[in-house]
Amino acid sequence: MNHLKIAPSLLAADFGNLERDVKLVENSKADWHHLDIMDGLFVPNISYGMPVVKAISEYASKPLDVHLMIVDPDRYISEFASSGAHILTVHFEACKHLHRTVQAIKAEGMKAGVALNPHTPVRLLEDIIQDLDLVLVMSVNPGFGGQSFIENTYEKIRKLKELITAKGCDTLIEVDGGVGLQNAAKLKAAGADVLVAGSAVFSSEDPGATIEKLKES
């Protein structure tokens, strides 16, 4: 059985007990730690930067899946690599020279991902999909946790899966925003490989059990 990869979003963790929550993910059946980096420019919110990523990396043995919701991400690629990022995802909408950015991420030894905002069509990735390890489909408008899931996401995942198959790639499809037990199975059926879950995990009574249920969806 092909299990979903689960990447709990540490944006929903308790920042006063970050080590505890990182270890909770470490001791669960989750696959990755998902870290949302926001600059207050590309998105209205501000989260955390390199020092927090580095601190998390010291407690984490599972890969750090770092999502940059920032303008001009090229400035920081090598810094995120040295801070411990394993996967670095940039926004299609933030990159003027996306191919160059993707190559720069890979040159630092990281896997390269590209995120699409809800309004950005999948077809815009046709010329670069073969270079990507991951595509992150935003199922809410980026910037804040706890938003409602956008229903068009299922169709978008299906189109992306068709593109990946047509190009003969093994690019993973990751989904972030409003993800939980209520839609995990449907997202998997549409073609999702990785689910990012924040409040669905950290606000649940038993986060470890919730992660396991998501994985079994």
Give a description of the structure.
It is a single chain. With about 220 residues, the protein is α/β, with parallel strands linked by helices. It has a single domain, classed as Aldolase class I (TIM Barrel, Alpha-Beta Barrel). The chain is built from eight helices and eight strands; from the N terminus they run βαβαβαβαββαβαβαα. It has an eight-stranded parallel β-sheet with strand order 1-8-7-6-5-4-3-2. The longest helix is centred in the last third of the chain and has 15 residues. The model has no long low-confidence stretch (mean pLDDT about 95).
Strand content: 15-25%
What is the CATH-assigned architecture?
Answer: Alpha-Beta Barrel
Task: Order the strands across the largest sheet as they lie in space.
Answer: 1-8-7-6-5-4-3-2
* Structural class by helix and strand composition: alpha/beta
Largest sheet: 8 strands, parallel
What order do the helices and strands come in, and which of them pair?
Blueprint: E1 5-8, H1 18-26, E2 33-38, H2 50-59, E3 64-69, H3 77-83, E4 87-91, H4 98-107, E5 111-116, E6 134-138, H5 153-167, E7 172-176, H6 184-190, E8 194-197, H7 199-202, H8 207-215
Parallel strand pairs: 1-8, 2-3, 3-4, 4-5, 5-6, 6-7, 7-8
Helix pairs in contact: 2-3
Q: What is this structure, in a nutshell?
A:
The chain has helices spanning 18-26, 50-59, 77-83, 98-107, 153-167, 184-190, 199-202, 207-215; strands at residues 5-8, 33-38, 64-69, 87-91, 111-116, 134-138, 172-176, 194-197. The chain is an alpha/beta fold and 217 residues long.
Give the tags.
TIM Barrel; 217 residues; 8-stranded parallel sheet; 33% helix; 8 helices; single chain; alpha/beta
